[in-house]
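Notes from hallway chat w/ T.B., transcribed later so I don't forget. T.B. wanted the structure written out for a chain they're using in a teaching module, and asked if we could keep both sequence and structure tokens in one place. Agreed to drop them here.
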Amino acid sequence: MRKNLLICIILAFPLGVGHAEPTKANSLKKVPASSGGWGLDSRYNKLLKEGLFQTFEGKVTKVRTFCPFDGMHDGVYLLLQTTREVVDIHLGPSWYVNHQDFRIQRGDHVTVKGARILFGDGSAVMAIEIVKGEEALQLRGTEGYPAWIAWKKKSSADAP
């Protein structure tokens, strides 16, 4: 009986449990798990400068995922062919965009409101809203507040 109990304990509690040895994965992860690095105060979101919004219209030539910075969760971007240029449009985190009742695919004609940001070796557009036909997906507020962030700080005007 004791032998069986000892075997159960050894199987249930393998050696090393409770030993917090840092791993490469843990040391690289420096983003909150809740937003995957897409939060309001994230390095990526701080690229957005309020008031520099433009409208882009064209045909979607590619829809892909990307990782803006090390440690972030993947995001969705599209390439938009306008009459003047090809624009890299960043929509938002994959875990948010892919769960909307709004689909964008290659060949779609869309209008995007967004702000140009310096990104990598060039620029991209951080989308505020994307419109396809009669449908619109709001990704951020006009001040840049992400639609996927539910918690907001209360202002003094909200106090009872």
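Follow-up for T.B.: The first strand starts at residue 53 and ends at 66. Might be a good example for the class.
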